[in-house]
Specification:
Layout (H helix, E strand, L loop, with lengths): L2 H22 L1 H7 L9 H21 L3 H23 L6 H33 L1
Helix pairs in contact: 1-2, 1-3, 1-5, 4-5
Length: 128
């Protein structure tokens, strides 16, 4: 498994954990992050969406589907930007930035891995 695939797999596993947590014990997860308890189904809906995304990430990593890896770099960076924006306009608890930071760090890991793999493959082609 390539390094970029491992970074995407890691993020998929993170999404599985977040999804299961939000479905099975949403108030525990929210409490750990400093958010108020959930009284409606929406938090669990977000958990289901996280699990759906996790399936894409895990399967793409297993298939080493690099175009998917590239697409996710931008979108995961956007999660960080939006979450930070929500905090700055006082729509959300600052802990939301922490969740966005996970997306940002994983996106940067994937981007760096893809860049290094591209350089390595160019060096191999140049040496033949």
């Amino acid at each position: 498994m390539s390094k970029s695939a491992k970074s995407v797999l890691f993020f998929g596993v993170y999404l599985v954990g977040m999804g299961v947590g939000l479905i099975a014990m949403p108030n525990l997860v929210l409490g750990l992050l400093g958010f108020p308890d959930a009284t409606e189904v929406w938090v669990r809906v977000v958990g289901v969406l996280a699990l759906v995304l996790a399936a894409y990430y895990v399967q793409a990593a297993r298939a080493d589907f690099r175009p998917f890896f590239q697409w996710t770099v931008f979108t995961r960076m956007m999660v960080f930007i939006f979450f930070t924006g929500f905090v700055l306009v006082r729509l959300a608890n600052p802990m939301l930035i922490l969740l966005g930071t996970v997306d940002l760090a994983a996106a940067l890991w994937t981007a760096l891995s893809l860049h290094r793999e591209r350089q390595e493959s160019e060096m191999v082609v140049a040496s033949t």
